[in-house]
Design goal:
It is an enzyme of class 3 (hydrolase). By secondary structure, the protein is an alpha/beta fold. The chain folds into 2 domains: 153 residues, Rossmann fold (3-Layer(aba) Sandwich), CATH 3.40.50.1000; 56 residues. Helix content is 30%, strand content 18%. Helix 1 packs across helix 3.
């Protein structure tokens, strides 16, 4: 794991380039591009109270598909009802969802055919949260409904790369959660972890940054390179 807080290489711009060309970028949504944590916490706390589940279940939940988490907490016959209820709560609560610093600038600096959002939200919730944050969404958005398995399996990022027409090994993944980074790594992508939802030492990634304000892209023939500020 490489930390962006390490001493950068010397240069006129005091930045550190990543020495490879990427074809496309695959962005997680919650915790990476937008901050929906307060809304997520409110919804899941209320859900847990309604279902009589101790609040400790939320430890490590970020970045995981709702269905897989719920399947560990309720009886098999209750999964569908429990999932429907938490989705109802999340769709109704979008107060305070904001764009994370540097996110809009970074994704907007890439051509639309070289960027995608890959989220564990379902296809109903993802656009609701993006609209609430007034976030400039790309044309390609992959949700949990689009693949048979969610993160930490590689399927979501493989699907994002496929829709853009590139090999996943030529893509860079931006993620804030261990489960998402594991999915990106399993897909063969270069991984960038963004500290915040989880501390930097919990993020197993090729590169870890404090925020997306540290990252910019330089367009080149065939794709782009990453430049990391200290």
């Amino acid at each position: 794991m490489t930390s962006a807080s390490a001493a950068p290489e010397s240069g006129p711009s005091d930045t550190r380039p990543i020495d490879r060309v990427f074809r496309a970028a695959l962005f997680d949504m919650d915790g990476t591009l937008i901050d929906s944590t307060p809304a997520v916490d409110r919804s899941w706390i209320r859900w847990g109270q309604e279902w009589g589940i101790h609040d400790s279940f939320r430890e490590g939940m970020h970045g995981r598909p709702a269905r897989s988490l719920i399947a560990e907490l309720v009886a098999p016959a209750q999964v569908e009802a429990a999932l429907a209820r938490v989705q109802q709560l999340e769709l109704a609560d979008v107060d305070g969802i904001t764009v994370l610093e540097g996110a809009a600038e970074l994704i907007s600096s890439l051509p639309d055919d070289r960027r995608a959002i890959v989220t564990s939200c379902n296809r109903d919730l993802a656009p609701v949260r993006l609209r609430a944050a007034d976030f400039p969404a790309p044309s390609v958005v992959v949700t949990i409904d689009d693949t048979p398995r969610g993160k930490p399996n590689p399927d979501p990022f493989l699907e994002g790369a496929r829709r853009l027409g590139f090999d996943a090994a030529d893509c860079v993944v931006f993620e804030d959660a261990p489960a998402g980074l594991a999915a990106g790594r399993a897909a063969g992508c270069f991984t960038v972890g963004i500290a915040g939802t989880h501390p930097a030492h919990e993020l197993d990634a090729d590169l870890v940054v404090r925020s997306l304000t540290q990252v910019s892209v330089r367009l080149v023939d065939g794709g782009f390179t990453l430049v990391v500020a200290p």
